[in-house]
Amino acid sequence: MAEKTIAGVNLSVSDEGYLQNPDQWTKEIAEEIAGELNIQLSDKHYEVIDFLRNQHKQGTPLTIRKVGKSGIVDIKGFYTLFPGGPLKYSSKIAGIPKPASCV
Prior knowledge:
With 103 residues, the chain is mainly alpha-helical. Helices cover 45% and strands 10% of the residues. It is built from five helices and two strands, in the order ββααααα. β1 and β2 (9-13) form a beta hairpin.
């Protein structure tokens, strides 16, 4: 584990930069992480982020297919919102651990 200051808050993060404590997440932290990934967050991004955070709280394993079937965004739209690694990047921005389905 490492320490990283994000949005002025000192946080414990994994070696890959995922928050260790999802309860420390704020929108300001999300904005800074997204900026590091060259992603400008919109309302649609936050709908996906909220879905991921809720699924994580319920202990539901996350997959790209599950997000695509959420009714929020289809799989193509998910890739458009979070290019280069939609589940990996959206999870990181959402402040939840990296899903097991991500390499």
